[in-house]
Design brief:
Blueprint lengths: L1 E6 L2 E6 L4 E6 L21 E2 L10 E4 L2 E4 L12 E5 L3 E7 L2 H4 L6 E9 L3 E10 L5 E3 L2 E2 L2 E3 L11 E17 L4 E18 L10 E4 L5 E6 L5 E7 L3 E5 L7 E7 L19 E3 L4 E10 L1
Antiparallel strand pairs: 1-2, 2-3, 4-12, 5-6, 7-8, 8-9, 9-10, 10-22, 11-21, 13-20, 14-15, 14-17, 16-19, 17-18, 18-22, 19-20
Length: 292
Amino acid sequence: MIYELKKGGLTAKVDSLGAQLISLQAENGFEHIWVGDPKYWRGQAPVLFPIVGALREGKTKIGGEWYEMGQHGFARKMEFALAGQTSESVSLRLSSDFETRKQYPFEFSLTVTYTLTDLGIDTAFTVENKGEKVMPFSVGGHPGFNIPVNEKAAFEDYTIVFDKPETQNCPLIDTSCALIDDKNIGFRMKGEREIPLRHDLFYGDALIFENLNSEKVQIVNKHTGKGVEMTFSGFPLFGIWSAKNDGPYVCLEPWTGCATLKSEGDEFDQKKNTTFLPAGAGADYGFSVKIL
């Protein structure tokens, strides 16, 4: 089911399949969320849970047993139930069942809430452990944004701008298996705030940043100031991605975890940045998007 939200001149649409944001339009009617053209990438803004990224050969070991799970987890392909709705917001919930337990043997609920603001939209994740044992998980966002933004401009007219200087050594991703090659560096920043946008940045897959100083990042036209800004906190990892087929979009991705490292084993609870939620506990995460 598609849920429509309105606030002032802003409108948004959310699909209950995957609790995915599929539209964010300003008053001028421009569509900011990537349109999902299968020529480039079918996704639009998938919710990543209970893993971010890929597992080695799509498998992981939990409690001594092997489980299979696709890249970015199963939430993005499952139907969410309505948990609450107003004219400006909607909350959708996925709860563990027989099918999820075949991939991930934990009792959980994941609630995704979208709320329109005066300038954009807020996304909130609430993860709850409904079981009696500690629950390891990762969660993340993956919204794609149409580039260029409502103007005659080239992809290369835009730049990625962090709100603080960053020194980063972004690891390579082995594109043959989608695992992180943490022994090799693919991209570096040395006290810089800007990354000029160009398609070949993503020919080796996503740029992965860790423990950023910044809590804001923009994709903005350096000539006109048009674009989008994401505000995020509480996410130790951040990905920026576009497919290597020169698609006219860029994804900004706040993550709590990441794909399996090539240097790691396959135990789920040993994955980098895994969060461990005690029985009966909950955890909240969120990020905001503003139209510039």
